[in-house]
Amino acid sequence: MTKTIAFDADDTLWENERFFREAENEFCRIMMRFGKEEDLSSCLFSVETDNMPLYGYGIKAFTLSMIEAAGKIAGRMLTQDDTHAIINIGKSLLQRPVKLYEGVRETLDRLASGHKLVLATKGDLLDQRRKLEKSGIGKYFSHVEIMPAKTTADYTHLLEKLDIKPCEFTMVGNSVKSDIMPVVELGGYAVHIPAEYTWQHEVPEECFSHPKARTVNSFRELLCRDSGL
Predict the structure, then answer these.
(1) What dihedral do alpha carbons 103, 106, 111, 112 form, nearest 10°?
(2) Pairing of strands 143-147, 116-122
(3) Average pLDDT over residues 71-98
């Protein structure tokens, strides 16, 4: 029986990936004199992937990767104005408003009456805390975990902190790769809420299904009996 429900934050509770898509488009616009958009995006993603073990996830890591990718693309032709414009992309991301998905607040309010709710997300510590504070839903979570990654080892560490067994834990999130697969591998339960946009890094190589994993189409559907909560 599920005692604790954990929620991913970005693109599960509030919109996020769309802003990164817009930021990447702006990066390509700044760098367009050096190549085709698809090549610029490919270079940026490659740099991001290489930097993940060092920088982790989040806006600051993304900004540093944009600057590095720009240097690789343009070399000595990269201007100070280019660099400043790229830094401003990162700053604008940090100043975006937090927009909750429809039904999030009401659903958390009802689920909190019968379960312990936890926030379990990746990203930059300060930025995620900022977004949680601006969202106004922090009161629903008895524990907040900003995770370095979402591997089975990271979830095992979280379960140890919460002092619960995997069979007492359900993870809710938009990423099959990060929110669903590692949890059911440990013996827990998971509910997938697909988002409009999915970061390329979060797309699994193959389709995934598991008897302990379910999919709902909206946050409100978590209240339906079929969600398993």
Answers:
(1) 140
(2) parallel
(3) 97
Amino acid at 211: P
Torsion angles phi and psi, residue 75, rounded to 5: 60, -135
Q: What angle do CA 62, 66, 69 make, to 5 degrees?
A: 130
Report the pLDDT value the prediction gives residue 227, as an integer from 0 to 100.
66
DSSP-based three-state secondary structure for 42: helix
pLDDT at 228 over 70: no
Kindly list the structural domains of the chain, giving each domain's residue range(s) and its CATH number in brackets, ordered by start: 4-15+98-223 (3.40.50.1000), 17-95 (1.10.150.240)
DSSP 60-81: HHHHHHHHHHHHHHHGGG--HH
What confidence tens digit (pLDDT) does each residue in 119-140 have?
Answer: 999 989 999 999 999 999 999 9
Environment class of residue 153 by beta-carbon count within 10 Å: exposed (0-12), middle (13-18) or buried (19+)?
exposed
Q: How far apart are CA 81 and CA 94, in angstroms?
A: 20
Query: Measured in Å, how far apart are the chain's first and last C-alpha atoms?
Result: 9
Return the bridge partners of 145, or none: 120
Contacts with 98 (C-beta within 8 Å, 6 or more apart), sequence order: 14, 131, 134, 135
- The tokens describing 9, both together, are 């934050």
Q: pTM for the whole thing?
A: 0.92
CB 215: neighbour CB atoms within 10 A?
14
